[in-house]
Specification:
With 371 residues, the chain is an alpha+beta fold. It has eight helices and 13 strands.
């Protein structure tokens, strides 16, 4: 299984609805989930099946690809093996996955609203207005924007505090239609899908890309300073074709939640920088040299976890050179989204990024952390 091509990323089975489309809090019904194995008469090529990773595609491929049509289209034989199980409403978990669906698709899966359920405030949230960002004036001298991009690394203290030197070139980052300028502030709701990246790559050269939260607080990580968050790690990228590289660390979109005391920063007192950096490889990185980080990772602090020592602690032993390109942005508290990701981590691996007692009793997040 591990050696296959994961076209549609694993999503935990969940159930939530009554026969009428409301929330099934009384567990009136169950839903069957099948796991089926089909024999392939040939190797499937990229693009034959609509891919879905994370929120990319707004979950369309999960709903619009009918299994029987897909089997016929691809010429699959079988099923040669199969099994099934049932799932039903589970307090807290069902609401969590309804919120996840809303975050990814922008719509509610419930046909009947649940206005009095505090866990489903997410279904009633309005999309916030994007923050204003700096745009260079059209009358600036040629080359002035480039000098600004270089100077901003040192002016913000990002170099040398978080990155060892100013990158050779500015990494072009695009989240959907959003182009990232250095040090700009963005919303979590704008960062759901893997970004498109571009840099001037040398021919016949491999690269490594890492997305790192460089402002993780020691009080959050439960340890000393110097801890960062690994949000994405891809190695063995040929040129700048990121999709053809080896994704060692699954993409987990940037998120923010904590004030200086380690509580929920619902007063927007601070923000955190996230850097996407590109390094040149001197050799191919072999399987097993880096620990694989799947989902939200283990509930620990270390190299093989989401929270761990920064990139400089392990890049040198891999013989990486750079940064040849990089860019960074800032994110702060966003109502609903910050709470969602703190709850996501708790659901995923049991790790509480915020102690329950540091969240007000009227915030639905408190329910998630105490369950």
């Amino acid at each position: 299984m591990a050696a296959g091509d994961e076209t549609i990323e694993f999503l935990t089975s969940f159930a939530f609805a009554t026969a009428e489309g409301g929330l099934d809090i009384n567990s009136e019904r169950t839903q069957r989930h099948q796991v089926l194995v089909y024999k392939q008469p040939r190797r499937l090529e990229a693009g034959e099946v609509i891919a879905e990773r994370g929120c990319e595609g707004n979950w369309g491929p999960r709903f619009i690809q009918k299994r029987t049509d897909l089997v016929e289209k691809l010429g699959l034989e079988g099923p040669v093996a199969g099994n099934f199980y049932r799932v039903s409403y589970e307090k807290g978990w069902s609401e969590f996955y309804l919120c996840l669906a809303k975050r990814c698709t922008g719509r509610s899966l419930l046909l009947i609203p649940e206005p009095n359920n505090p866990r489903l405030i997410c279904l009633r949230e309005e999309e916030p207005k994007a923050p204003e960002v700096y745009e260079p004036a059209c009358n600036e001298e040629p080359g002035s924007a480039i000098r600004t991009n270089q100077d901003i690394w040192t002016a913000t203290g990002t170099v040398p505090d978080k990155l060892e030197r100013v990158p050779d070139q500015l990494l072009q980052i695009q989240f959907g239609s959003l182009n990232i300028s250095p040090n700009m502030t963005v919303l979590m709701s704008q960062l759901q899908s893997r970004p498109r990246l571009y840099w001037d790559a040398e021919p016949n050269t491999l690269y490594t890309v890492m997305m790192e939260d460089v402002d993780v607080l020691g009080v959050v990580a439960g340890g000393p300073g110097g801890i960062t968050g690994k949000h994405w790690l891809v190695t063995n990228i040929p040129g700048n074709n990121v999709a053809a590289g080896d994704e060692v660390g699954d993409y987990l979109q940037s998120f923010f939640f904590a004030n200086a005391e380690g509580g929920l920063d619902d007063q927007s007192t601070r923000d955190q920088r996230h850097i996407i950096m590109v390094y040149k490889q001197t050799r191919r990185i072999q399987s097993g040299e880096l620990e694989r980080i799947s989902g939200c990772g283990p509930p620990a602090v270390g190299e093989g976890a989401r929270l761990g020592p920064n990139h400089q602690s392990f890049f040198p032993r891999l013989g990486l050179e750079g940064p040849v390109a990089a860019n960074f942005y800032r994110i702060g508290y966003q109502s609903g989204w910050s709470e969602f990701f703190v709850c996501y981590v708790k659901r995923c691996n049991g790790f509480s990024l915020i102690p329950a007692e540091k969240v007000s009793v009227d915030n639905p997040l408190r329910l998630c952390l105490e369950e």
